[in-house]
Design brief:
The chain has 4 helices and no strands. It has 113 residues and is an all-alpha fold. It has one domain.
C-alpha cells in the first residue's frame, strides 16, 4: 500500500501543476482550457492527497482508479472541449493526463489480493 500512497502523492503534485499551468504557460485567456485545468487540478490534489493519507486499502485503490479516469479525461479534454488549437494547453493536458493515467493505474494495481 505504501507504493500506491506514494504514487497518489505524485498525482496530487501533478494536480498542483495543473492548477498553475494556465498562468505559467500563458493560456489563461483560453477560459475553457483554464477552467478545465483548475477544476481537474483541484480534483487531483484533493483525491491524490486523500488517497495518500488514507489507511484503508479499498479507499486508496478506489481513489487511484478515479485519478486514472481523471488522467484519461485530461488526455481527451482538449478535443472534446475544443481547445486543441491552444498548443500549450493541449500538450500540457495530454502529457499530464498520460502521467496521471499511468500513475493511477499503477497505484490501483499495486495491491496483491
Amino acid at each position: 500500500m505504501k507504493t500506491a500512497k506514494s504514487l497518489n502523492w505524485i498525482i496530487a503534485i501533478g494536480g498542483v501543476w495543473e492548477i498553475l499551468a494556465p498562468f505559467l504557460l500563458s493560456y489563461s485567456k483560453a477560459t475553457t482550457a483554464m477552467w478545465d485545468a483548475i477544476i481537474i487540478g483541484l480534483a487531483l490534489v484533493i483525491l491524490g492527497a486523500w488517497a495518500g493519507l488514507a489507511n484503508e486499502s479499498n479507499t486508496v485503490k478506489s481513489l487511484s482508479w478515479v485519478n486514472a479516469v481523471l488522467g484519461l479525461w485530461l488526455v481527451i479534454a482538449p478535443f472534446i472541449l475544443a481547445y486543441s488549437g491552444v498548443a500549450a494547453a493541449m500538450w500540457n493536458d495530454v502529457i499530464v493526463g498520460i502521467i496521471v493515467l499511468v500513475l493511477g493505474v499503477w497505484a490501483a494495481q499495486a495491491f496483491k489480493e
